[in-house]
Amino acid sequence: MGGQFLEVDFQEDGSGAGGYAKEMSKEWHAAAANMLSKQCEEVDIIVTTAAIPGRKAPLMITKDMVAKMKSGSVTVDLAAETGGNVETTVKDEKFVTDNGVTCLGYTDLASRLPTTSSSLYSNNISKFLLSMGPQTTRVPEYMYIDHEDEAVRGMLAVEKGKLMWPAPLPPPPPPKVEEKAIEPEVIDYKAPYVLGAKNAGYLGASVLGVGCISPDPAFSAMFTTFCLSNIIGVQVVLGVTHALHSPLMAVTNAISGTTALGGMHLLAHSNSGGVTTLAALATTLSTVNIVGKA
């Protein structure tokens, strides 16, 4: 019918001795009042059952909350015998508020509904028996005892002269696998900077070393230009998106072709062993670059 339990947004154990509720704290009552005040504007029926043995029932629904309910709504106070949970409850009477809310405070509801109670109980029992009878098996006069059905097996006492009670206990739940705590990964934030500083130091030392052994200033200038062009080229390629890789490869192929032609020109007119070596290296690497991207 769409009914649902309401939970108070406050953690506190309300169970007491003998299945009755215990008296809750002021903080819990404040949170409950806030929640119930909002719910009274939406619900049509409120049923309260909070009772404490030997003490006055706690007040849960105030007059202001009842005043917010729609006309035609109903409150049923099952704790009316000890004062009631609804402030508008009148013991053993039906009271209608000014805004049309019916408040029931009967203390003998159980004796007022014997026919309904018997009908509900007999309906449950008949449905349980029919689940084992011909309506389920489609075989006349055959009762199917399903031992896998917890309800049927729990009620089974004797079967074919054999005592079947009590029912075997259900299998224990599988053991809970304890998950090992995952240690958080320790991130060394200094490592990238230290590595970058080392690489920069190695590169600087290498450049200075080549400069010290260079035969003339022209070689130093060309070597410096070569190193800087490599650094710029790497940075440019790393900064290009994947969508532009194909046009970039076409441009680099053109550049490689130019360097290959320059290397072959130097090979033909070189008078120095160092120049010949560099020209051969440039021609070889450019050719490999062109063939590899073709």
Automatic annotation (TrEMBL):
SUPFAM superfamilies: NAD(P)-binding Rossmann-fold domains
Chain ranges of the Alanine dehydrogenase/pyridine nucleotide transhydrogenase NAD(H)-binding domain: 1-105
Reaction(s) the record says it catalyses: NAD(+) + NADPH + H(+)(in) = NADH + NADP(+) + H(+)(out)
Cell location: Cell inner membrane
InterPro entries according to UniProt: AlaDH/PNT_NAD(H)-bd, NAD(P)-bd_dom_sf, NADP_transhyd_a_C
Keywords per UniProt: Cell inner membrane, Cell membrane, Membrane, NAD, NADP, Translocase, Transmembrane, Transmembrane helix
Molecular functions (GO terms): NADP binding; proton-translocating NAD(P)+ transhydrogenase activity
Keyword Transferase set for record: no
UniProt cross-references to PANTHER family, sorted A to Z: NAD(P) TRANSHYDROGENASE, PROTON-TRANSLOCATING NAD(P)(+) TRANSHYDROGENASE
Name of the protein in its database record: proton-translocating NAD(P)(+) transhydrogenase
Protein species of origin: Thalassiosira oceanica (Marine diatom)
Upper lineage: Eukaryota, Sar, Stramenopiles, Ochrophyta, Bacillariophyta
